[in-house]
Amino acid sequence: MTSLPHLTYVAAEQKSAEVTDWAARVGWLVGLALFVALIYWLMREGWKWRGTLQGDLPELPVAPDEPGAATLTVLSMSGRYHGSTTAGQWLDRIVAHGLGTRSRVELTLTDAGLDVVRPGATDFYVPLEALREARLDKGIAGKVLTEGGLLVVTWEHGGKLLDSGFRSDRAAEHGEWVRTLNQMINKTTETEGAR
User: Fold this and answer.
1) How far is the C-alpha of 184 from the C-alpha of 131, rounded, in Å?
2) C-alpha dist (Å) from residue 91 to 95, 107, 109, 155
3) What is the pLDDT of residues 10-54, one digit of tens each?
């Protein structure tokens, strides 16, 4: 049997490890915070740089005082604006003039064009002559939904074709909007072709 003095000696020799090295932990936390701040700053600078590169895009048109009669039985569509991209390039986001800012949206379609009202962001107006196409899609820069979950409107601004993505609070409305917009665009094209 082991004697009691021997156990006391063994217990005295074992030393528990230091539980927390606060200086090292604080150093890691400060380093991590600086790294996150650097990444955030680089992303912000990249966003501003993209806006500078797109500086040739003219100011966005505003709605006329006399917008014309409403075209749809539902005068407006409430939902979300998910952004605008270069037409056909769903990842090339346009950020100039606030077009890259996601927001709530109220769309109103009239005989004169499409009025896009965005609370907390820049409103814009797409005249009927500038509308090129409407379609259902599944994604636009930074947002991917189920097939047909996004209303994408192609329009021309400053000699450049843009795709703007909208998602209605009631996605069943998308089909009616696509049909109506494309009918209006076709009528406008036929009228201009007849001239």
Assistant:
1) 9
2) 12, 23, 26, 17
3) 555 666 666 678 888 889 999 999 999 999 999 988 878 877 777
